[in-house]
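Weekly structure sync, notes
Attendees: PL (lead), two postdocs, one rotation student
Agenda item 3: pending single-chain targets
PL asked that the sequence for the first pending target be pasted directly into the notes so everyone works from the same version. It is reproduced below exactly as submitted, 85 residues in total.
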Amino acid sequence: MNTQEKEIETGIYEFLNPWEVDAGEWLENHLDCDAIIDDLGTRIVVYAYTRNPQFNRKLSDYRKESYSGKTILRGISSVGLNSIF
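Predicted structure, written out during the meeting:
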């Protein structure tokens, strides 16, 4: 995992160098949490993300301020995912 990141606001983490990663791998490892991304198909470039879903709304506001034009990737619901199994 890319370790060059910093907490820029409470609950929001930003990569110092945007990280390109497989979209499925990202979603699997960040259940319930949103990210600011560029969509490359099966790969994404992640700029910032939350580690706790309580900060997802704050991340949307941060995107409007600092990353207009970028996309919010909504995290997969762990509750919904667990109901499948």
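Discussion points:
- The first strand starts at residue 5 and ends at 9.
- Residues 66 and 77 are 26 Å apart (CA to CA).
Action: rotation student to compare against the earlier draft before next sync.
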